[in-house]
């Protein structure tokens, strides 16, 4: 099924209507239907918010920037021509807005330290308690290491490894070529590996 | 291969573990790293560590109970500056 004919993933609390494909919602949104825009973009809102939480490490700022992303998307949707998927387009706006927020933060006298706790999630409950503790410790260490990466490297690792996007899609969202993206990704992994240490990674990952 | 010393191979391998697990090495380079890692405890562990890193990072991607706030469309609904979509299509 082509993406444009796919029913849009349903946003928070709405029952999906089979007639509401991404293509029809997009067409209505481009014609100025704000409700259609909210259903179209709301389907990706949790992912956008989570991405911003990981890139910014601050819940309040991520909430604020998510609002900004949605406003920018609404303002620009009439110019969206479908060269990429709507999701990719929205994610690219989110990465751009995250970069702008980080730039603003860097100009403030006392920069807000990125919160490592916001960059990791609880371990899956299916693990036994000792493995869960190891896994939780590794996640905490990974969150800390991610927080300490320069933003371009953090963005590459989050998009490719955390989000699981293809290199092509992640590079497009980051706004760089695939070779440059790969270079950032490999640098990011080497730094994170050095920060956590092989023993901790291998023990928790075995 | 034989044209690289052990130290060269080791340093090169340590710098290319991410390329290795990503599948970005050409066959000849992959064989070089494979051959070296067979006899190098550090690089063997490095490969496992890099795989664990990628796997753990991927595990962070779940949306376990994290939801966007319900205020995300407030600026659009409030009709503030620039609240309407541009009608000019590129």
Task: Summarize the SSE layout with pairings.
The complex is a heterodimer of chains A (206) and B (90).
Chain A: H1 22-30, H2 34-42, H3 45-56, H4 59-76, H5 86-107, H6 129-147, H7 151-162, H8 167-174, H9 178-196, H10 198-205
Helix pairs in contact in A: 1-2, 3-4, 3-5, 4-5, 5-8, 6-9, 6-10, 7-8, 7-9, 8-9
Chain B: H1 6-15, H2 17-22, H3 27-38, H4 41-59, H5 74-77
Provide a descriptive summary of the structure in words.
The complex is a heterodimer of chains A (206) and B (90). By secondary structure, chain A is mainly alpha-helical. Chain A has helices at residues 22-30, 34-42, 45-56, 59-76, 86-107, 129-147, 151-162, 167-174, 178-196, 198-205. In chain A, α3 (45-56) crosses α4 (59-76). The longest helix of chain A is centred in the middle third of the chain and has 22 residues, at 86-107. In chain B, 57% of the residues lie in helices and 0% in strands. Chain B is elongated, with a radius of gyration of 24 Å. The N and C termini of chain B lie far apart (55 Å). Classes of the chains: A mainly alpha (206), B mainly alpha (90).
At a glance:
Chain A has 206 residues and is mainly alpha-helical.
One letter per element, helices H and strands E, the order of chain A comes to HHHHHHHHHH
CATH architecture of the largest domain in chain A: Orthogonal Bundle
As for the number of domains of chain A, it is 2
The best one-word shape of chain B is elongated
Q: What oligomeric state is this?
A: heterodimer
What does the main sheet of chain B amount to? none
Low-confidence stretches of chain A: none
Quick tags:
heterodimer, A: 206 residues, mainly alpha, Rna Polymerase Sigma Factor, Chain: A, Arc Repressor Mutant, subunit A, 10 helices, 66% helix, 0% strand, B: 90 residues, elongated
């Amino acid at each position: 099924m082509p993406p444009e004919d796919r029913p849009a993933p349903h946003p928070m609390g709405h029952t999906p209507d089979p007639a509401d494909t991404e293509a029809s919602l997009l067409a209505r949104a481009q014609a100025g239907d704000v409700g259609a825009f909210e259903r179209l973009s709301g389907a990706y809102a949790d992912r956008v918010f989570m991405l911003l939480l990981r890139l910014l490490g601050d819940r309040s700022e991520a909430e604020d920037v998510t609002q900004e992303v949605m406003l920018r998307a609404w303002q620009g949707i009439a110019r969206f021509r479908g060269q990429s998927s709507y999701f990719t387009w929205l994610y690219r706006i989110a990465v751009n807005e995250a970069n702008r927020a980080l730039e603003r933060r860097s100009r403030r006298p006392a920069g807000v330290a990125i919160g490592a706790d916001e960059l990791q999630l609880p371990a899956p409950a299916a693990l036994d308690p000792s493995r869960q503790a190891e896994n939780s410790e590794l996640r905490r260490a990974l969150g800390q290491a991610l927080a300490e990466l320069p933003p371009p490297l953090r963005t590459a690792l989050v998009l490719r490894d955390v989000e699981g996007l293809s290199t092509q899609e992640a590079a497009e969202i980051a706004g760089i070529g695939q070779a440059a993206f790969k270079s950032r990704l490999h640098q990011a992994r080497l730094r994170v590996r050095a920060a956590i240490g092989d023993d901790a990674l291998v023990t928790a990952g075995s | 291969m034989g044209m690289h010393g052990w130290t060269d191979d080791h340093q090169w391998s340590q710098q290319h573990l991410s390329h290795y697990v990503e599948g970005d090495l050409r066959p000849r380079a992959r064989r070089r790293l494979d051959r070296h890692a067979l006899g190098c405890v550090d690089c063997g562990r490095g490969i496992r560590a890099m795989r664990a890193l990628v796997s753990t990072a991927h595990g962070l991607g779940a949306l376990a109970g994290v939801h966007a706030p319900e205020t995300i469309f407030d600026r659009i609904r409030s009709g503030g500056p620039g609240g309407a979509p541009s009608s000019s299509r590129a």
